[in-house]
Write a structure and sequence with these properties.
Layout: E1 4-9, H1 16-29, E2 36-41, H2 47-54, E3 59-63, H3 80-85, E4 90-93, H4 96-101, H5 106-118, E5 122-127, H6 131-135, H7 139-153, E6 163-166, H8 180-196, E7 204-207, H9 212-219, E8 226-229, H10 236-245
Parallel strand pairs: 1-2, 1-8, 2-3, 3-4, 4-5, 5-6, 6-7, 7-8
The structure holds 2-phosphoglycolic acid.
Length: 247
Amino acid sequence: MRRKLVVGNWKMNGSLAANAVLLEALQAGLDADSGVDSAVCPPAPFLAQCQAMLAGSPLAWGAQDVSANAAGAFTGEMAAAMLADFGCKYVIVGHSERRACHGESSELVAKKALAALAAGLTPIVCVGETLAERDAGQTFAVVGEQLGAVLGLVPAADAARIVVAYEPVWAIGTGKTATPAMAQEVHAQLRAQLTDKNAGGVQILYGGSMKPDNAGELMAQADIDGGLIGGAALKAADFLAIIAAAR
Ligand code: PGA
């Protein structure tokens, strides 16, 4: 039985003061024995705050991006080893906002996943189709190529160390969620692709307008192992309710 994992993607939100309130509320509400893995991914300047406030708590933390390079003349980038220094367990790679706004290709995302693994981090590899791609019947081809780039580069022995997040681009921040059946169909394909690489036990999260009122139904699907949560991760009560729904 795969454990469920619920990850908050704070995107470019937060402040030292607001985060302190949110993290305290999350810690107060989290049950160490819930059997559900959980993490928050704040903007990088707040990783030190997470490290200081969350040390020893069941809530892990991670970053929203990482460089494919180990060190050197890459202004503005962050190396995986630096994220590990700040206690990160996870790092999101290939979020659709980075693919769309920063031109990240599947090849670059694969290199980032590789760099994360080399530093002992768990990359959360995001895949997902746009509405135009879905309407054109390309969903399986698109997510298959995005995951395939990572599985093609990562050594076979490490494929089982990744997490995958299926996030239909049209569902992110829009209030539109894939129906549980639509999401499960894509998750099943991703599971088959992972199983081919002996990585069938990888956690596959759903993301895109997951909220307390739809989380339970989505996570009840056979191949949905948790959620990557944007908007609802900024409200302690909502994020805790989603973790509770994962039990
Ligand atoms: P959302 O974002 O929950 O606000 O739709 C999810 C994500 O982009 O990771």
